[in-house]
């Protein structure tokens, strides 16, 4: 089979790789129909994160079950399924708490021993704990599949930011970042019923999409000016801040725009020097709460999927470019050059 | 009147200072009967924190109301009262949330314009929002007054660590620090109903007091060895970690001993380089929550006072030395040299 692989900064290639095989009775093989390129893929693409030479890439799988191990009971051959960016056993104490990203036996795609999703097929460990079936009736509905797809990462991640920031109906949220996760964060905040949603970012077109997703205010300035604008708009800060970037500068902004006693949810893998970001003295004196991490998208799928199926939310506008498997290198380049916000890969 | 004042590192003196006067109709004047020296006072005493030369010191007031302003309604002349280490208006959005330490019009004792509690009397701003009356019937009961007194700081602070760490009945807590706050944290955890309470510290006598307060396990080793012990005892970390030191090394330990998905409550004013403490990557990958700050002791007094009055908890063993006002300099020296854990000042 063929799959995208990493060969150094800026160099993604499509290689022949071994077909996946069932290794454990809890495994499934999924033939990928849809995958995507993630903003977090740009860290290794840009050489800002070490990555195995020749390693498989991609962590957003959607496809058709081709084979299941003998112990798999919740999905069967022929089902269309979504898998979150992390696989999980579904039964450990952490999965039971809805924290599948810290599953005792879980892991991440495209790590040693595990397939990357930007390829023709993957072996899915813990199929029962990992996969969620897409309803049969939407199988041919490409628009709906494109709307459901972001549940495997960016939509669940945006929702996680809102959950960690303890956003509730009627609340005021600041969403930092206008990438796909930030935009999905706005959508999640709107779905939860936030009364005011302030989107912070630096790209006019993305901020307009944030407005379409439900942002009530847009802040496109930078640094202290941006912080000042938010403090003015909120008369002293927002009780719920969603840090959807994963950079120390964004965390600094989050602490500055949070209202005393407020909460910061952070969902981007942290990058940048820690001492630039976590101003613990300010957090202490503002009595802030901080919580985040890799989103347990698996936990959120059952909650969010119905609202996509019934049309309440549709995150698919985060995709502004579509390629096939051979177009994956071009997709990376487009995202790296900010010519595309997020690239869908259709196989 | 006379009061303790700061004259450089290691130099506390008892000076003549002006008598306090009612300045606003919401003020009260309280004649101090009991006050204390706090572990946090050692930061300036040791020259590790800048402090005004000649400035008043102390932030733990208990005493008798001598005079009230015309708008004060909840306390009257002659009442015995406790005041938390922060004063607060009692009516702003933050006070209404029980977050009096971020009160819109609040502040702290011994800051410019405000009296320190280690003296014969203080002016209390926002008397209605700040003071809590001690029941008339315990007025002469010195043992009970000594038990109630820590509600103004260390007992409320220990409780805040438990609240921020989201400790609930049946949970497992790690309490980092065997100072007065850590010991009160153990007592708070016991009161909440924690099934297992692991106290970490370096002083055998203090750890024995932790055991008397309800700790089920004591860890006195340091660094990686201590972390290893806690991870072994808890089979992978505790879901509730109470950082009761306020040093970056303690925060590092807190992150290391927290169970994935767990919560860290931190209540010591942070000291030490931030980059040594907040390992945001580990926090991210362990999906930890962090919350803390100066404890809103005023909010906790109504909840905790009945359990002291009925004998459920008695934090008074944190005091192992008593001095009068003239003995305050000696009290600082004893705490600095670790000859005393916490010094009560009786006037």
Compose a concise summary of this entry:
The structure is a homodimer of 347-residue chains. The first copy, chain A, is α/β, with parallel strands linked by helices. The first copy, chain A, has helices at 41-45, 93-96, 127-130, 142-148, 154-164, 180-192, 204-213, 223-234, 248-257, 274-277, 280-286, 297-309, 328-336; strands at 2-6, 12-16, 28-37, 62-68, 80-82, 86-87, 107-108, 121-124, 132-133, 172-176, 196-200, 217-219, 238-243, 258-266, 289-292, 321-323, 343-346.
Question: How does this model look, in words?
Answer:
- 2 copies of one chain form a homodimer.
- With 347 residues, the first copy, chain A, is an alpha/beta fold.
- Chain A folds into 2 domains: 2-153 and 296-346, Medium-chain alcohol dehydrogenases, catalytic domain (Quinone Oxidoreductase, Chain A, domain 1), CATH 3.90.180; 154-292, Rossmann fold (3-Layer(aba) Sandwich), CATH 3.40.50.720.
- In chain A, 31% of the residues lie in helices and 23% in strands.
- Chain A has 13 helices and 17 strands.
- Chain A has helices at residues 41-45, 93-96, 127-130, 142-148, 154-164, 180-192, 204-213, 223-234, 248-257, 274-277, 280-286, 297-309, 328-336; strands at 2-6, 12-16, 28-37, 62-68, 80-82, 86-87, 107-108, 121-124, 132-133, 172-176, 196-200, 217-219, 238-243, 258-266, 289-292, 321-323, 343-346.
- In chain A, the strands form 4 sheets. In chain A, strands 3, 4, 5, 8, 9, 16 and 17 form a 7-stranded mixed β-sheet that branches.
- In chain A, helix 6 links the parallel strand 10 (172-176) and strand 11.
- In chain A, helix 6 (180-192) packs parallel to helix 7.
- Chain A is globular, with a radius of gyration of 20 Å.
- The relative contact order of chain A is 0.16.
- The mean pLDDT of chain A is 96.
- The interface between A and B is medium-sized, with 33 and 33 residues.
- Strand 15 (289-292) of chain A pairs antiparallel with strand 15 of chain B.
């Amino acid at each position: 089979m063929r799959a995208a692989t990493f060969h150094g900064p800026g160099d993604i290639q499509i290689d022949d790789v071994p077909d996946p095989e069932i290794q454990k009775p809890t495994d499934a093989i999924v033939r990928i129909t849809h995958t995507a390129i993630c903003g977090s893929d740009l860290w290794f693409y840009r050489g800002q994160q070490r990555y195995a030479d020749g390693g498989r890439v991609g962590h957003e799988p959607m496809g058709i079950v081709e084979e299941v191990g003998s112990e798999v009971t919740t999905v069967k051959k022929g089902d269309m399924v979504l898998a979150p960016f992390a696989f999980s056993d579904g039964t450990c104490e952490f999965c039971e708490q809805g924290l599948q990203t810290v599953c005792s036996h879980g892991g991440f795609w495209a790590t040693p021993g595990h397939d990357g999703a930007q390829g023709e097929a993957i072996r899915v460990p813990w199929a029962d704990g990992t996969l969620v079936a897409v309803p049969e009736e939407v199988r041919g509905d490409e628009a709906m599949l494109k709307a459901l797809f972001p549940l495997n990462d960016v939509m669940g991640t945006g929702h996680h930011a809102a959950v960690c920031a303890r956003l509730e109906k009627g609340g005021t949220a600041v969403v930092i970042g206008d990438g796909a996760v930030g935009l999905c964060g706005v959508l999640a905040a709107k779905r939860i019923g936030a009364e005011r949603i302030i989107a912070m970012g630096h790209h006019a077109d993305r901020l307009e999409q944030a407005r379409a997703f439900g942002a009530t205010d847009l802040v496109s300035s930078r640094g202290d000016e941006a912080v000042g604008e938010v403090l003015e708009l909120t008369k002293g800060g927002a009780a719920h801040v969603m840090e959807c970037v994963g950079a120390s500068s964004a965390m600094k902004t989050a602490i500055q725009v949070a209202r005393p006693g407020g909460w910061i949810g952070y969902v981007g893998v942290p990058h940048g020097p820690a001492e630039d970001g976590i101003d613990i003295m300010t957090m202490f004196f503002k009595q802030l709460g901080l919580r985040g991490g890799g989103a347990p998208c698996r936990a959120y799928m059952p909650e969010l999927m119905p609202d996509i199926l019934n049309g309440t939310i549709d995150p698919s506008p985060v995709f502004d470019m579509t390629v096939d498997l051979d177009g994956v290198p071009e997709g990376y380049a487009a995202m790296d050059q900010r010519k595309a916000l997020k690239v869908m890969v259709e196989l």
